[in-house]
Amino acid sequence: MADLKDTRRKCTADRVDGLACRAYAMESGPCFWHDPSQTDLRKDAALRGGSRRSVFIPIGEPLGPEEARGVVRSVLEGLVSGAIDAKTANAAAYLLQVNSRLTKTEEFERRLTAMEKRVVNQRR
Ligand SMILES: [Zn+2]
User: Fold this and answer.
1) How far is the CA of 29 from the centre of ligand 1 (A)?
2) Is the Cα dihedral 37, 46, 90, 72 positive or negative?
3) What gap in Å lies between CA 81 and CA 78, rounded to an integer?
4) Is residue 5 very low, low, confident or very high in pLDDT (cuts 50, 70, 90)?
5) Cβ(12)–Cβ(30) under 8 Å?
6) Backbone angles phi, psi at 14, to 5 degrees
7) Which residue of 23, 48, 60, 98 has the fewest CB atoms within a 10 Å radius of its CB?
8) E strand or H helix at 28, and its extent?
9) In the prediction, which pLDDT does 46 show?
10) Residue 100: which residues within 8 A CB-CB, separation 6 or more?
11) pLDDT digits (tens, 9 = 90+) for 54-100
12) 55 and 38 in contact (C-beta within 8 Å)?
């Protein structure tokens, strides 16, 4: 299989369980969840959620079909090689399904709007 080495920088902090954090690092160094300068933002989000358990999730770039297929392959290779556990792979597969549904809905909406415009224009 092709070398899928991820060149993006990873967080340098340790998780509460002592293992290395695998989240992607921000420009400031650690990931969002380990960046001390984001503490207020995280606390604020937790308070607004009414619970310390609520998690603020930064909004990422939309996952395009090409990227989604790349993630599928990476997760598959990770699963087969043992780097990713089945539970994580299942969660990733579910989120990829959600992403696929969102993409299809957007495409459908776009085509429907275009068709509606054409129908309105033909009646004029
Ligand atoms: Zn981290």
Assistant:
1) 9
2) negative
3) 5
4) low
5) yes
6) -100, 150
7) 60
8) none
9) 66
10) 68
11) 566 777 888 999 999 999 999 999 999 998 899 999 999 999 999 99
12) no
Predicted TM-score of the model (pTM): 0.55
18 CA → ligand 1 middle, Å: 12
What's the rounded Cα separation, in Å, for the pair 37 and 31? Answer: 11
Amino acid at 64: G
How far is 21 from 30, CA to CA, in rounded Å? 9
Whether the Cβ atoms of residue 24 and residue 10 lie closer than 8 Å to each other: yes
Considering Cα of 105, then 111, then 115, then 120, what sign does the dihedral take? Answer: positive
5 CA to middle of ligand 1, Å? 19
Helix (H, G, I), strand (E, B) or coil at 97: helix
Distance 58 CA to ligand 1 centre (A): 13
Structural contact between residues 35 and 43, judged by C-beta atoms closer than 8 angstroms: no
For residue 72, report the distance from its CA to the centre of ligand 1, in Å. Answer: 23
How many angstroms does the Cα of residue 118 sit away from the middle of ligand 1?
50
Distance CA 85, CA 91 (A): 10
